[in-house]
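Aim 2 progress update. The chain analyzed this quarter is reproduced below.
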Amino acid sequence: MKTIKNIHIRTHTKRILSKNLFSLFALLLMTSILATSCDPTDDSDSGSQNEEPPTAQEFKNIRDIALNNHTQLFNFNTEDVYISLISENGVQINLNANCLTDNGNPVSGDITLEYIEIFEKGSMLTTNKPTMGKLPNGDKALIITGGEFFIEVTQNGTILDTNCGLQLVIPTSLTGGSDPDMSLWTGEMDADGNLAWDEVEDNTNGDGGLFLEGENYYGILEGFGWTNVDKFYNDPRPKTTLQVQPPAGYNNQNSAIYLSYDGELPALAQLDTYDETLNLFSEHYGQIPIGLECHVIFVSESDGEWRYSIKPVTIVANEIITFYLGETTVRTEASLTALINDLP
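Predicted structure tokens:
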């Protein structure tokens, strides 16, 4: 009886050990799977394994949708002559309808005015309207904005001109308060569809087109198109360049890289140069302050929505930052806009 009991005990012990070893093996296997799926460099388990990079047109389409979502339309008749319109945010647009021309000829009748206003960095990103100002040598540097504005006037689909300009009255409450260092800038689109800003040095009034009075900026615009109230960002720290590598299959045609400076809410920089050989976006002008705390933002398109990733970074000299597809997220325009606006 004693011998049989010992055999039973040994058999039971083996079963327990075997069960424990199996549980341990299962636990180790599960841990390995979880560790692998959380690796941002491994796209196979990130839900992106079948994701094809978007075409350039698909990326352009979501930007166009964002811009359309910011567009306001006003209709008026030239018989009213002196036109004063108020935007959704309270910006006043004043123009003389008698000054409108079509290929140099006066126009009359019903007119449509298309207007866009952008005050927050989230909207700057989705519409691809960053605040990069041209330096005298042609390089670009960050400018702090008091608002970006677009005005176009049409009649029956034909774009009109004006021979006497127009006026914007911008409440300083929309721009973070009054700043006498602000000046007027005009926007210029490059071949890649990126917007850069040129400062208006002077005009017929001798005031550079902008003056501050009370709680309003008054902008005197000489024509239609993009206009900005801005000043250059100033930081005394040594500067460097920054390079960013997007996920494989993404480039400057189907994605973009932006830079949000912490503590500078109404501004958004863009890495607007691209090396096809190295697959690197760059701010090659050497204008990024070393030690700057910021957020580097990768954006692209995925099935009609925004694919993005945001990295908090403290800038070091000649840094290269890499994004992986497995660490990106897909959200709506509204969600991404709110997220960018909430950055420090």
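The two ends are 78 Å apart (CA to CA). Residues 1-47 have pLDDT under 50 and may be disordered. These observations will guide the mutagenesis experiments scheduled for the next reporting period.
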